[in-house]
């Protein structure tokens, strides 16, 4: 590709003439572009056929079709778009980089330049029509883009017009997203936003396409917005008014009215649920991300070292248990994490916000935990924490995850250029100890707080204050010949530890056998003064 350095070298001489070297190569490019019949747009104007190709100047970025003279003027004025060494939008064959898929790279490996987010997807939508099937493809021939993905790519191109004619730096999409990010990060009210945008519009040249207010900004981005659901919930966290219960006006557990008042019908509590499946599909619409979604399988593991969860025993155990799932390396492995906080800085105005996040572990470790790739699945807002009723709010997420595991959804892979049936599994949850109790339904308080030893931990309550204590409860886990077992000075006085305690790793079925007969701890109306607890609670089980 070194023979195309002329594309980014000097175009104009000191005498304001076109440089001879650039002119010669540039004419060759135009001849090549208009010789490829598959990439030409034909229009009939005044009875004559007009041929157009995508303009690769730094302003049009291969998005607009233009005739030969217009492409020539644009290139001479604006230069080529960055890193367009491979003319894939003009019929040239594509050479895939031999760089290993597991290696880190900050730029796209396909000569498309450093495009991010939706801009990268716009380039990918053109890539689908001009690049032959990569070697890693699982099918012998490229498949057609399914109608849903094609419509999405088309909507991206529609909202990606330049902010004004001959604007080189910003498109409508870029400006709209940057303004919304500013509004969110700075907590700008709608009224202020609506006053600021007209000022910017007045500063821009004639023909600008900047949205005039907040409503127009949202309207511009609506076609490419990700779906979400607003689900009403009981104010006492008993149930969701969801699916078969969506028509109820009173909670079927506590009888509380669904709305704040009967006239306006404003709900007491609203759960915001962002559908997971569609968000995971979008990752495969970008060819760079689609390539990295199999990193967990493609990277080379070093014996004895764990650099990614895919090198661990849990991952290997799941693959051995569900080989049909593991056979398709593009199937998605997720983790779930949550914690609550008070968005108000003062405790005098109590409010609870519980976000639930999904992390994608298919990605390499340097990307998986970046905020751009951590998906927000649920937002639980209210005056008080959901506590032990967190599972009520997790219902729509769990239902979708079960569907995505047992069934599948057709997804288009922009890198391999084929459709596949994507399945999803939730491998584990990550949380602090209090949130662990909320997620699992098992209390983490009292002398049975240890999740492994339970009633065999040896914990006890202090005589004064009754706080649980685990002093000297750990020596039983040491090797039988460890010196600490015979230490009679630094632990319990004059006590040697002879008990050998192995940490058990019970299966899900074994745990279910232990707890299936236990009723729900807080059964009936939540938060009532006297909650009846089953026999043995806090003594033999939690």
What does this structure look like?
There is one protein chain. This protein is of the alpha+beta class. It has 17 helices and 13 strands. Among the domains are: 92 residues, no CATH class; 51 residues, no CATH class; 39 residues, no CATH class; 158 residues, no CATH class. The strands form four sheets. A six-stranded mixed β-sheet has the order 4-5-8-7-6-11, sandwiched between helices. α3 crosses α4 and α5 packs across α7. About 8% of the residues have low confidence.
Q: Could you tell me the strand content as a percent range?
A: 5-15%
- Summarize the biggest pleated sheet: 6 strands, mixed
Order of helices and strands: HEEEHHHHHHEEHHHHHEEHEHHEEEHEEH
Determine the N-to-C terminus distance.
67 Å
- How many helices? The count is 17
Mean pLDDT, nearest integer? Answer: 80
- Our Rg estimate from Cα atoms comes to 30 Å
Question: What overall form do the CA principal axes indicate?
Answer: elongated
Low-confidence stretches: 94-116, 129-141, 522-530
Q: Describe the strand arrangement of the main beta sheet, using strand numbers.
A: 4-5-8-7-6-11
Structural class: alpha+beta
| Percentage of residues assigned to helices | 25-40%
The number of E-state strands comes to 13
Q: Based on the structure, what is the oligomeric state of the protein chains?
A: single chain
């Amino acid at each position: 590709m070194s023979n195309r350095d002329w594309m980014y070298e000097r175009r104009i001489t000191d005498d304001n003439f076109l440089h001879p070297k650039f002119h010669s190569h540039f004419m060759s490019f135009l001849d090549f572009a208009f010789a490829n019949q598959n990439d030409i747009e034909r229009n009939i104007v005044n009875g004559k056929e007009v041929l157009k190709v995508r303009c690769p100047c730094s302003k049009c970025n291969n998005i607009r079709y233009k005739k030969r003279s217009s492409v020539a003027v644009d290139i001479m004025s604006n230069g080529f778009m960055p890193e367009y060494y491979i003319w894939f939008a003009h019929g040239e064959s594509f050479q895939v980089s031999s760089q290993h898929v597991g290696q880190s790279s900050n730029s796209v490996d396909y000569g498309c330049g450093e495009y991010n987010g939706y801009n990268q997807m716009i380039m990918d939508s053109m890539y689908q029509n001009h690049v032959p099937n990569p070697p890693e493809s699982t099918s012998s021939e490229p498949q057609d883009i399914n109608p849903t993905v094609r419509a999405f790519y088309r909507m991206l191109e529609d909202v990606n017009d330049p902010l004004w004619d001959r604007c080189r730096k910003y498109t409508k999409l870029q400006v709209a997203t940057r303004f919304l990010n500013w509004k969110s990060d700075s907590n700008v009210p709608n009224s202020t936003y609506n006053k600021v945008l007209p000022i910017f519009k007045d500063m821009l040249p004639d023909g600008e396409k900047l949205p005039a207010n907040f409503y127009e900004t949202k309207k511009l981005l609506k076609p490419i917005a990700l779906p979400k659901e607003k689900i009403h919930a009981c104010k006492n966290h008993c149930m969701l008014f969801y699916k078969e219960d969506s028509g109820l006006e009173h909670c079927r557990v506590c009888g509380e009215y669904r709305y704040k008042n009967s006239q306006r019908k404003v709900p007491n509590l609203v759960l915001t649920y962002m559908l997971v499946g569609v968000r995971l599909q979008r990752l495969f619409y970008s060819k760079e991300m689609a390539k990295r979604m199999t990193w967990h399988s493609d990277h080379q593991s070093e014996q004895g070292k764990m650099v990614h969860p895919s090198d661990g025993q849990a991952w290997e155990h799941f693959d051995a248990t569900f080989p049909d799932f593991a056979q398709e390396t593009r199937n998605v492995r997720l983790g779930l994490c949550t914690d609550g906080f008070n968005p108000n800085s003062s405790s005098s105005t109590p409010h609870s916000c519980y976000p639930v996040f999904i992390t994608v572990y298919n990605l390499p470790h340097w990307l998986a935990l970046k905020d751009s790739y951590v998906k927000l699945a649920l937002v639980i807002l209210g005056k008080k924490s959901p506590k032990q009723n967190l599972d009520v709010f997790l219902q729509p997420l769990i239902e979708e995850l079960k569907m995505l595991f047992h069934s599948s959804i057709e997804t288009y892979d922009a890198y391999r250029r084929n459709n596949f049936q994507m399945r999803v599994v939730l491998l584990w949850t990550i949380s602090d100890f209090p949130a662990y109790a909320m997620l699992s339904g098992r209390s983490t308080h009292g002398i049975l707080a240890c999740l492994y030893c339970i009633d065999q931990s040896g914990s006890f309550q202090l005589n004064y204050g009754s706080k649980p204590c685990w002093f000297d409860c750990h020596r039983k886990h040491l090797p039988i010949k460890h010196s600490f077992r015979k230490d009679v000075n630094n632990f319990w006085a004059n006590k040697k530890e002879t008990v050998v305690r192995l940490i058990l790793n019970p299966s899900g079925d074994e745990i279910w056998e232990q707890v299936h007969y236990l009723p729900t701890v807080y059964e009936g109306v939540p938060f009532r003064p006297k909650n009846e607890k089953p026999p043995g609670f806090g003594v033999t089980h939690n």
